Amino acid sequence: MTILSRLQSLEQEGRPIRVAVIGAGQMGSGLVRQVAGLPGMRVAAVGDIVVDRAVAAAAAAGIRAEPAGASADVSRIVGEGRAALSNHAGWIVDAPAVDAILDATGDPDAGARLALAAIGRRKPFITMNIEADVTVGPLLAWMARAAGTIYTVAAGDEPSVLCEMVDFARAIGLEIVCAGKGKNNRLDRAATMKTVEAEAILRGMSPRMLAAFVDGTKTMAEMASLANATGLQPDQRGMHGPRANLADLLTVFVPHGDGGILRRRGAVEYAVGDVAPGVFVVVTSSSESVRRDLAYLKAGAGPYYLLYRPYHLASLEAPISVARAALFGESTMSAIGAPVAECLAAAKRHLRVGEVLDGIGGETVYGLIDTAAGAAAAGAVPLGVTHGARVQRDVPAGAVLSDADLALDERLTVVGLRRLQDAMTRRGTLPSITPSALVPAGAVRA
Q1: Between 3.90.1720.10, 1.10.3720.10, 3.30.70.360, 3.90.1210.10, what CATH number should domain 341-427 receive?
Q2: What is the pTM of this model?
């Protein structure tokens, strides 16, 4: 039975998947509208730290809604056929009337807290919060599997689309040479909310979110999360990120020995050019007959071949992951073990002793991908734990921040989880495993 037919059956039976969307900004509001328009799903709750945003998101989707003052209120409101609105995400996650949680906060600490709560309640947790996933996703995925529930990055963003393409290619026996995305925005490592404010207003975006796109952080975090879900690795710190159009992919994203930029096969990368908003996978095969078939099917002249998807639909696709998790107990994308890549924090400008970092998309730091081994050797600090950290010594612009440079805010859940993840990785109790070794958790909804 297909996802659509299962959802249609739930709709006819009056048993929709009751979904809570946490975070009602641009992405979250889009998720609310999308879930509200699909069969077999219902927006049970909308949460945001600014409750007026939750109210506006529900209104824009044409949903009848009511503010909730406690967990019991959430279940009562949902039972009466309305959506519960709250600035207290814990009440929403706790409510028995909520079946699945969709995280659209974009905040590493909020995402970590939400995921922990959802896993504790054995509820599928579907996230568009790549900032949290790249920081503690390996641990959260491990915890969810141990609890018999689902933690997954949502379908629709470049890393999850690429993860499915990589899995498809491997399933038919192809070797992955490179998996990459087109960068949607210009690259300016010094971008801040102030420098992109005018553009953000024109595009209807949060200036902080746009700054994280422009300074490269989003691309670095996305590809590090993809690496952790597939075992692919960055070829170098920060990746190469060449200017390359669609027609160039099979000559650029191949090994040095064949005229390309890669020092090894099995890389994650990005291109600046007309590839965006698409994603691509460069593949090869040791089989002469397979190579001949790929050439016949116009995937390339060989020995490298291109799989290309010219779009990703972001929040429009995310409900697919809700359905896969709730109906079939399947993850769209999650880390397969200990991290193989990290998104490190680099100084956006000269940082001075005593300064407090303002986090992703702010004025102080941006993200850089590196291998997990390279990050560990440098004592580098993951970007996702830096919000609120105090600078311990001067750091020049462009330098990667180390443990000695910062005093982290130990009150943050994401900091505690990251310390646990690091300890488990060192002990080998968060081992790297192959995708074939993963046994999907049982479906959480009949």
Answers
A1: 3.90.1210.10
A2: 0.94
